[in-house]
Amino acid sequence: MLRFDSxxxxxxxxxxxxxxxxxxxxxxxxxxxxxxxxxxxxxxLRMLNGLSQPTEGSVYLAGELISEQSVxxxxxxxxTVHQQFNLTPRMSVALNVLSGALPQxxxxxxxxxxxxxxxxxxxxxxxxxxxxxPEHVSRRVSELSGGxxxxxxxxxxxxxxxxxxxxxxxxxxxDPRISRGILELLHRQSRNHDTxxxxxxxxxxxAREFGDRIIAVNHGRLVFDGTPEQLTDKVCxxxxxxxxxxxxxxxxTAPSASESELELAAA
Amino acid sequence: xxxxxxxxxxxxxxxxxDQPYNARHLxxxxxxxxxxxxxxSRMEVPRMLQxxxxxxxxxxxxxxxxxxxxxxxxxxxxxxxxxxxxxIEVSRIENFDRNNLxxxxxxxxxxxxxxxxxxxxxxxxxxxxxxEMLVKPVGYLAHVLFKMMETLEMALWGTILAVLLSIPLAxxxxxxxxxxxxxxxxxxxxxxxxxAIPELVSALFLVLAFGFGPxxxxxxxxxxxxxxxxxxxxEDIENADRGPQEAxxxxxxxxxxxxxxxxxxxxLPQYIAYTLYILDRNIRMATVIGIVGAGGIGLExxxxxxxxxxxxxxxxxxxxxxxxxxxxxxxxRLRSRLx
Lengths: 267, 339
Known about the structure:
By secondary structure, chain A is α/β, with parallel strands linked by helices.
């Protein structure tokens, strides 16, 4: 379903975000991407919806090369769940979910907010699946809690029946109890809709619990690829603490809140 | 004890504190003094001060005469009492129907005596001339209010035009939505050009094109305020939170739909506040723009002023003043509710 062929990504300032990544994700797999902040997880995910282009190498989605010409068409098969939810704040829950199907509606209908009834029914169905109630529909998303906002984000992501779902640290701004709920939901939804998922996470224990397969990136390289059982504590230790030490040495970025959370979780 | 050591003053270092002013500040002060002296004498500021003082002195009885005070007094006397009624000579009204008078009006016969010299008797004689007049007790006030209404409508349509012009301009003038560099620069410079032309100047030319009346007025207002709104709108589009826009872009929604669903809901309250401010400003501008012939109350003001009908001018000024006060209150309340 997803294929990376020796992908490199260099930014104009000279940093190498991805180095020689080759990866194949089969259809329907829930693949978790682990790695410390700045390791290249987001860049890896952004290659798939065309928000970032590889400097070298090629990325294939359902057998098609992602290029300038194909990206607009291929984007319709890819949905994204974001760390900061990225919902439009003052808009209602209903319109936020419906906006997930915008590429399918004409400009006239979109401009007048007249979505076809099939899409409206689908939105209701999805909102029900993600565990929201009818009374949430007309509320502004900015009035909802973080967990509820992410549920709206997941409902929006499934509006176009995506073949691939990218979840970019979907639970990094949520507390641990809600995180588990959100990941359970993501897992269940992707099973029901037969969606291939690439989900970046910070918590190895959540990765073990929900991933069919776990990969880890560090300094732009693929450093681990295996089943949840193969991701032992020793591997985690090496991945994060080795990385942290090196990062301190390079004095690049201070470890973010989510990393210190992770240390606590590992302890 | 370690902290104490860190806090103790290092005796070896040479400390010195500068005066807060130095030669440069003195130079700047001299420059501003010269600037004020030169421009002040060109603006006749001393004469202004002297004559104002004289006028105030006259008001409290310290001075015998003052040109400013007599000027003000003459204006006040000619403005007061304000013109409320309207009188029209019946013989001048075409198709006058005596049995069907306009609402709230009555007929009056006014006799006017004009003294003139009888050439035979060499005595002054009064000739009595009687005219039948149609008197409307609040006729002129109603006329001014009607003109004020037209002014408000001009401001409203000026604002509508400004919004319609500035929305597409703003989309092209926002760096992240402009299709290319050329169109971006074109939109930016159009907005600057609109803002650079004062309404009174563009109205002068538009009156030549469209003739006297409100068309020239609201076009001039719309073009000028589109310059402001375009800039404000474009900046808000650029500063809007990128997250929702990225989310919609990543599913391939396209620029127009992204603007509609990812940007507009975020910036709408700001847009409404800007538009209200522009409406407020356009109403104030619309009252004067008529002076160059572009309709509304300003046209009436200019006509009456040129005919030295200062009592009419007085009524107009009072109505403008009251309208602006009421609108200020109204828009302040509306904006505070929206924010």
